[in-house]
Specification:
Layout lengths: L2 H18 L5 H13 L1 H17 L4 H13 L5 H13 L13 H4 L3 E2 L6 E4 L5 E4 L4 E6 L4 E7 L1 E5 L11 E5 L2 E14 L4 E14 L4 E5 L2 E5 L8 E2 L11 E8 H8 L6 E4 L7 E7 L3 H11 L2 E7 L2 E6 L6
Parallel strand pairs: 5-7, 14-17
Antiparallel strand pairs: 1-4, 2-3, 3-6, 4-5, 6-8, 7-8, 8-9, 9-10, 9-11, 11-12, 13-15, 16-17
Amino acid sequence: MNQSRREALQAAAQWYARLCSEEAGPADEQALQQWLSSDPMHQWAWQRVDQLQARIGRVPGHLALNTLERAEQHFSLSRRSVLRGLVLMLGTGTLGVAAYRHAPVELWLADHHTATGEIKQLTLDDGTTLILNTASAVDIHFNANERLVILREGEIMVTTASDSAESPRPFIVQTPQGRVRAQGTRFSVRMLEGETQVAVFEHSVAVTTRTGSQNQCFAGQQLTFTADTASPATSLSPTEDAWTRQMLVVQNMRLDAFLAELGRYRTGVLRCAPSVAHYRITGAFRVDDTDQALHALSKSFPVSVNFRTRYWVTVDEKNNFRQ
């Protein structure tokens, strides 16, 4: 690869890292736009970032550079080949896994995983149905004593099947905070920041925190638990499982909370200006077409949806929109 392309890719990777940081603001948006328009080579490099994101989901800029270079040399690389390159980079100590909290490499190498915006259904060996929500990862460990699903990241929906083994094995979903044991049920498990959320749609589950605290959650209920304690169960919205049908259904939700949920299904940054965060939204939106959902906002509220790039979108007051 010639030097000018390498420099452009390096800058694009750095821009993407800045875009994904929590400190990025309007000044960065303007600077990125200026950088993109200053040289066709910059646009070329950014398109390579775009193509890479489509392949492997959200990759931080400081991990992306060498991957981009390898992909540019032979862009028909398989997903496994790209991941192997990232693992090699991490294994040699040139990069740190901890620096990228959203999708560490062990998640990419999990038994089953989904990219950002992808929803996938699996049938396990025992007949259990498992649906992985966006940016999710699981490992499956079935043995003579238990059927174990380890949720590494994201959210899953489980519809358990009866165990055909001579001695029925319990079906368990494990997270860093504890274990959820199915009791002939349909339920979802979602990892949040430092806690796990469980929602039960049929029958019940038994929750055991990492320190041994035990709780029950019944159909029509949900609860969250940490490694130490579980919150009291609360009523479950009947549309809580809408994501399994590619839908996000909300009722009187704050706009900032809605955008946080919608943002789970698209790569990059989706920002909400504080001045419009208080608006309340009700409706049903397809998560496989988040752009359409964003465009609908400008028809319902006095807001502007500003697409700086595909990976950088800001929802702001209409009079704050900058051409």
